[in-house]
Design a protein that fits this description.
about 250 residues; alpha/beta; TIM Barrel; six-stranded parallel sheet; two-stranded parallel sheet; 7 helices; about 15% strand
């Protein structure tokens, strides 16, 4: 797999969500929460503002292969695989007919999100059976490591296990190839990126900010994180105005 930059295409925004639900106002990890009512309003905005919500596969093909896209395309990504995705976000996505991609942590399926402090500590992650159901409902499943560790801060051997092992485990759960990877905490390095390539993924998304078209290659695709405080004005601003790439590696 090469590290070629994307080919010219209309701008694609890859949006990053985590939990969707009803929460007390968070004092930390604000980018990990989205209120259900705000999420619904954001999905309605995409429709009425004329955005086309596409799969990560379609975005990848448009950027790095021979696919073509109309203008104003958006990819909806959800990190970690929280149970509240299927309880709160998924029904709204189905209502609008939007595809999405969910990045699951293969070693913590059906368990709490132990890496979060504060209010997210006991947030349950969905079990393997739910992942299988989602895959038939217009949701792509990607890998997010085995244990949600900072991949650049563990040994090369452990990083490889987390990356390649998550792909193998999820493919066993789903009975299908898993092509996409998301770096936990947005933490990666050139060696980590190269391990993702070696493991056989087609592409990886980061926590760097900017349109997907500003990616240096298919394994460092930036996203725009949607945070607790984003009202519709903030949502519009991120989609339309925040288009300068801002790198983040940890």
């Amino acid at each position: 797999m090469s590290l070629n930059p994307p080919k010219p295409s209309p701008r694609i925004n890859v949006l990053m969500y985590h939990q969707v639900g009803k929460f007390a106002e968070p004092t930390a990890h604000r980018a990990c929460y989205c209120d259900t009512d705000r999420f619904r309003a954001q999905m309605a905005y995409l429709k009425y503002a004329g955005y086309r919500v596409i799969s990560l596969k379609q975005a990848y093909e448009a950027l790095f292969e021979e696919g073509a896209l109309a203008k104003r395309s958006v990819v909806l990504t959800f990190d970690d695989g929280y149970q509240n995705f299927i309880d709160n976000a998924y029904p709204i996505l189905q209502e609008y007919g939007y595809p999405s991609v969910l990045f699951a942590i293969s070693g913590l399926l059906g368990q709490p999100a132990r890496w979060l402090d504060g209010g997210g500590l006991n947030a349950p992650l969905m079990p393997a059976s739910t992942l299988r159901e989602l895959r038939t409902g217009n949701v792509e499943i990607g890998a997010h490591s085995i244990n949600h560790v900072r991949l650049s801060r563990v040994s090369a051997e452990q990083s490889w296990i987390e990356i390649a092992g998550s792909k193998a485990a999820l493919e066993d759960v789903l009975g299908a190839v898993v092509d996409w990877f998301a770096y936990p905490f947005g933490d990666y390095s050139p060696n980590v990126r190269d391990a993702v390539i070696r493991a056989g993924f087609k592409a990886a998304v980061t926590c760097s900010r900017g349109p997907a078209n500003t990616a240096p290659n298919a394994f460092e695709i930036p996203r725009k994180g949607i945070s607790w405080g984003d009202n519709l004005w903030g949502y519009f601003w991120k989609l339309q105005m925040k288009n300068k790439r801002k790198d983040r590696y940890a």
